[in-house]
Amino acid sequence: MFYIRCQNKAIMRVLVVAATEFEVGGLMSEVESQDFGLKILDLELLITGVGMVATAFALGRHLVTNQYDLAVNLGIAGSFDRSIVLGEVVEVVQDHFSELGAEDDEGFLTIDDLGFGEGIFKSTANHTSLKQVKAITVNTVHGNETNIQNIANRLNPQLESMEGAAFFYACKQVGIPCLQIRAVSNYVEKRNRDAWQIGLAIKNLNSFAIDLLKQMDRR
How would you class 124 by CB atoms within 10 Å of its CB: exposed for 0-12, middle for 13-18, buried for 19 or more? Predict the structure, then answer.
């Protein structure tokens, strides 16, 4: 956990959200090991735990008593899109609760179709210079070829994570501008850990996050 407060009264409060400390270790070390010299940013980190349920609960509990000007979700993800190279950092501008709904024989009814809510959420902060992508949020990471093809046919996602849409959902409920940044650690395919590039993805994710926060503080 880190929390850094600057002395400027005209501050911008920023919440950095991640599922695990492992994914943001580089950022934490950078912030804790030296004075960032912040002028307008207050930074706070929230580790939610893995999955949409843990993310929604942790954010809901935290945001009841804390207010921010911006929330930034950092994490790794799998990519359906082979044009995105492993280790690349991208911005998720739309995320989808892909499993939230009902099976209708061979079809699928979304939560929107059922009239019980909404399943698609979008970034509400100013976009970065990163490639913009659409993602799905899942309880079960895809690793079966038939299931991968089915979800590709139905939604044509570029990325998948286990937290992104829950993050967007929670931010929307309390009206906080939000931004989701992901680094691709693997392609969505039959499970093949030998091909994953988690270390590279985390390194690139943290480097981008450090630069992004420094740029924000100079504005």
Answer: middle
Q: Following CA atoms 45, 47, 52, 57 in sequence, which dihedral angle do they give, to the nearest 10 degrees? A: -90
Which amino acid is residue 97, in one-letter code?
F
Pairing of strands 159-161, 107-110: unpaired
* Close Cβ partners of 14 (under 8 Å, ≥ 6 residues apart): 41, 42, 43, 44, 68, 69, 70, 71, 72, 213, 216
Strand stretches in the chain, DSSP E: 3-4, 12-18, 41-47, 70-79, 89-97, 101-104, 107-110, 120-122, 132-137, 159-161, 178-187
HSE (side-chain half, CA atoms, 13 Å) at 216: 24
Single-letter residue type at 67: Q
Tokens of 40: 């307008």
How does DSSP classify residue 215? H
pTM of the model: 0.92
Q: pLDDT (tens digit, 9 = 90+) per residue, 147-199? A: 999 999 999 999 999 999 999 999 999 999 999 999 999 999 999 999 999 99
Spatial CB neighbours of 132, under 8 Å, sequence gap ≥ 6 = 90, 91, 92, 93
Q: Is 105 left (phi over 0), alpha (psi -120 to 50) or beta?
A: left
